[in-house]
Write a structure and sequence with these properties.
alpha+beta; Phosphorylase Kinase, domain 1; Transferase(Phosphotransferase), domain 1; 6-stranded antiparallel β-barrel; 11 strands
């Protein structure tokens, strides 16, 4: 989000560069939660308050809603050139001692040409810094690439022959002085395409991955992180040797404190589908060899399973960033059962969200792949059950803590009742009665404990083979557990179903909410006294959900029953009756029955004025 905020802010020179980004990010998070007319009203209100901020926010939303096809290029390239509409440069004739033969492609910082050298005679790849990017920062990055490649003598990395500034001769006699990089020309196919075209088997694909890990490990030993590993940057030549290309966005670890070698804080470089969570966050301090390991995990997963471990196709930037940072990748075995076991564990380790839980370097990952081929024990271990539960708790902190709090309150109630029983000495009958109550409360607590245990087992990520679990899925698991193993006490079941119904309602899952509340209401009607206020409270909740599902006649019927129940309670039911009258008034207003609605509203107001200590309820009626 920080990257998007800077982009939107940077495109509008009228904006206050230091005051707006934080607020812009806050407004952005609010806006993307709204849809349709609600979002437009939000933007119009902001436009009246701060036109410049609203303009930037609209740009930011438009950028966020672009599909990820726009992100197939490295982000650096996309963001650097998205506003440029200049026609492509003509093909140069010569660059220094090299004769240009044709265009090979475009990199993040320059054009790449096929060129020939006379002495020694050979064909090379020549990268020429783009003229429209000829500024000090681009030149520093370009020369850094030359330095990196010169320090990486490895058969799996494109060799560098020469780097420097040279005279560029253009058609028409024009000349310019530009930096260039002459390197080994690799004729081959991108990794995934090579595997597919040659129909490589599992062992052959793993051996390719091991060689790639070896090349990247060479960089890691030199303190270099690639940060843009992807199949398009790994070409496999005619001899079957993979070559890692384009260290243009690599960071020299030992130069981290040298300001001239730093990218701007939080700037995201790389290609989104292969980026680690820390790269997506723009957390430059956390980027290191494990970031490349994550990319290798995605690449290897794609080579072996034919799909990405996380599907961000068609997502907006914000959605994709959230998925990469929060959701657990699928496991290899889900796509091919033959890939389960150690191989699955290797890639699960490489794709860990926490960099400290991944392989520390590409070499360690390659070594485990080699052990797998040799049928030796691998060093990686699958996440423990405790770790999975901890991750589950962090993803659903509010729901889990709320459940545990409720459970704790129930236990404290049991303790209190039991204490009372032990201390009571007035009579043997009274003590026995208190002890019986304590046992009933303990039995209720045990029923709730079993239900919670069954629910968490049903939603255990280990049993789901690593798939991410949404809050709705968690509540669905609880509902299924309730149907399979309902508590013995019908009132406990009714209370739990009422909680499920309310949770579904908060998640806008109205049909599911209505189903749970209806079952809970039926249990209350069967096992509580007719005048018990719990039935009326639940009936009002049920009526609200029926309105959301457009079952208005059924809702009115429930509201009339609810009003009668509260009326029978006398003073104890005044607050509930006021809420019922007010809600019926709102409902009749929506149905354009204005006279009836007005009368009910007046009745609600008259009643609210008679209830002491309820200013908020009175305010609702005004």
């Amino acid at each position: 989000m920080a990257l998007l905020a800077r982009l939107a802010c940077g495109q509008d020179p009228s904006m206050k560069r230091h005051a707006i980004p934080t607020r812009l990010e806050e407004e952005f998070h609010q806006a993307i939660e709204l849809e349709g007319r609600e979002r437009e009203v939000f933007l119009e209100r902001l436009e009246n308050q701060d036109p410049a901020l609203a303009t930037a926010l609209r740009r930011l939303i438009a950028l966020d809603e672009r599909e990820l096809e726009e992100l197939d290029r490295p982000l650096l390239e996309q963001l650097s050139f998205q506003e440029r509409t200049q026609p492509p440069s003509p093909l140069p004739l010569r660059v220094g001692p090299y004769r240009i033969e044709g265009l090979l492609g475009k990199g993040g910082m320059g054009m790449i040409y096929e060129a020939s050298q006379e002495n020694p005679h050979r064909t090379i790849a020549l990268k020429l810094l783009r003229r429209d990017l000829l500024d000090p920062e681009a030149e520093r990055r370009f020369h850094r690439e030359a330095e990196i490649l010169a320090r990486l003598p490895h058969e799996g990395i494109a060799h560098i022959y020469q780097a420097g500034h040279g005279l560029v001769q253009w058609p028409g006699g024009e000349t310019s002085e530009q930096p260039y990089l002459a390197m080994e020309l690799i004729r081959g196919l991108p990794l995934v395409e090579y595997c597919r075209r040659n129909r490589l088997g599992l062992e052959e694909r793993i051996r390719l991955l091991i060689r790639i890990c070896s090349a990247v490990e060479q960089a890691h030993r030199k303190g270099i992180v690639h940060r843009d590993l992807k199949p398009q940057n790994i070409l496999v030549n005619q001899e079957g040797v993979p070559k890692v290309l384009d260290f243009g966005v690599a960071r020299l670890l030992e130069a981290e404190r040298n300001q001239s070698f730093q990218t701007h804080t939080g700037q995201i470089l790389g290609t989104l589908s292969y980026m680690s969570p820390e790269q997506v966050r723009g957390d430059s301090r956390s980027i290191g060899p494990p970031s490349d390991v994550y990319a290798l995990g995605v690449i290897g997963f794609q080579c072996l399973a034919g799909v990405f471990p996380l599907d961000v196709h068609g997502c907006s930037i914000a959605q994709a960033a959230r998925i990469i940072q929060e959701e657990q990748p699928t496991r290899l075995g889900e796509h091919d059962s033959s890939l389960r076991g150690d191989l699955e564990t290797i890639f699960e380790t490489a794709l860990e969200k926490d960099p400290q839980r991944r392989y520390p370097s590409a070499g360690e990952m390659g070594a485990d792949l080699q052990r797998f081929l040799q049928n030796e024990p691998i060093h990686a271990r699958p996440p423990s059950r405790l770790y999975r539960i901890q991750k589950f708790t962090r993803r659903h902190r509010g729901l889990v803590y709320g459940t545990l709090t409720t459970f704790l309150v129930l236990i404290l109630g049991v303790i209190g009742t039991t204490t009372f029983a032990l201390r009571s000495r007035k009579s043997e009958a009274e003590a026995k009665s208190a002890l019986a109550r304590a046992r009933r409360e303990a039995d209720k607590t045990e029923q709730i404990r079993r239900f919670l245990a069954g629910m968490l087992t049903a939603s255990d990520p280990n049993l789901r083979r690593g798939k991410p679990l949404t809050v709705v899925e968690l509540v669905d698991a609880a509902a299924r557990e309730m149907d399979r193993n309902p508590p013995k006490d019908p009132l406990v079941e009714a209370s739990l179903r009422g909680t499920l119904g309310e949770t579904y309602r908060n998640l806008s899952q109205y049909p599911r909410s209505a189903r749970q509340l209806k079952k809970a209401l039926s249990l209350y009607e069967s096992h509580l006294d007719p005048g018990d206020p719990r039935t009326a409270e639940l009936r009002l909740k049920y009526a609200r959900v029926l309105v959301e599902t457009q079952k208005l006649e059924d809702a009115e019927k429930q509201l009339r029953l609810c009003a009668a129940a509260y009326h029978s309670l006398g003073d104890r039911g005044k607050e509930g009756l006021t809420q019922v009258l007010l809600f019926r008034s709102q409902l009749l207003t929506e149905r354009r029955r204005f006279e009836e609605a007005a009368q009910l509203a007046k009745n609600a107001l008259d009643l609210a004025r008679k209830i002491p200590g309820q200013p908020l309820l009175l305010a609702d009626c005004l």
